[in-house]
Design brief:
- The chain is α/β, with parallel strands linked by helices.
- The chain has a single domain, classed as Rossmann fold.
- The chain contains 9 helices and 10 strands.
- A 6-stranded mixed beta sheet has the order 6-7-8-3-9-10, with helices on both faces.
- Strand 7, helix 8 and strand 8 form a beta-alpha-beta unit.
- The longest helix has 14 residues.
- The protein is globular.
């Protein structure tokens, strides 16, 4: 099964091309990195995959995500976004507890008993590498967490949906070395179990965390692939 298939995707604003044309595939349960120079449209491509381009941006070409033709008329984009969860570059936490933040997404797509919501939160926080740090303060305000912890909380919020695909936009760009290592450790735990796309400006990070890498906006042409190194434990 192919989690993502993109063919000749172009994102434009009027006559100005912002990204593409780019073509690539993400096989199921693999991790694909997306790299390129600043302004190449990496984050824009990621948002196009789940129909989150703001007006007046327009996407052309073929985009199939988890078997859904994203460009087709009448597609249920909110349902797709529950299956293909996007985690943005800036960790956004809501003015609520750590637990409430962790289950925020799943509460909006599924009516689960409170005990099951807590179980899903624990599983997601564990998968994101945050559980041991917050298990004794789940009712504390989320805005008391460090930036690195907030980023992992946002990852946990996405994982609580049990998505088939994770889309991560520069997940460590604002983090220090220790927080980056924690995020990469969480990504290592996901590798081979979930389909993941990672946008990053750091080629070494992509080599550590991805099975394959696609370059957009480079001199060799969009969609250029390069083999990633085998996964390694974060330093």
């Amino acid at each position: 099964m192919t989690a993502v298939r993109v063919d000749q995707l172009v994102v434009s604003r009027g006559d100005r091309v912002l990204a593409g044309p780019v073509s690539f595939e993400v096989p199921a349960t693999t991790t694909l990195g997306l790299r390129g120079p600043s302004g190449a449209g990496k984050s824009t491509v990621l948002r196009a995959l789940v129909g989150l381009l703001p007006a007046p941006l327009c996407a052309t070409g073929a985009i199939h995500v988890l078997g859904v033709d994203v460009a087709s008329t009448g597609v249920d984009l909110p349902a797709l976004r529950a299956r293909a969860a996007l985690v943005g570059q800036t960790p956004v936490v809501f003015p609520a507890s750590i637990l409430a933040n962790a289950v925020f997404g799943i509460r909006h797509v599924s009516r689960l008993p409170r005990a099951e919501l807590r179980d899903r939160a624990q599983a997601a926080l564990t998968e994101a590498g945050l559980w041991d740090e917050v298990a004794d303060r789940l009712d504390a305000p989320a805005d008391q967490l460090s930036i690195g912890q907030r980023q992992r909380l946002c990852l946990a919020r996405a994982l609580a949906l049990e998505p088939e695909l994770l889309l991560l936009d520069e997940p460590t760009s604002a983090l220090d070395g220790a927080a980056t290592a924690a995020i990469e450790a969480a990504l290592a735990g996901l590798r081979g179990r979930r389909s993941v796309m990672i946008v990053s400006h750091d080629p070494a990070q992509l080599a550590r965390t991805c099975d394959d890498v696609v370059t957009i906006g480079g001199t060799t042409g969009d969609g250029q692939r390069s083999a990633a190194a085998p996964a390694a434990a974060p330093a």
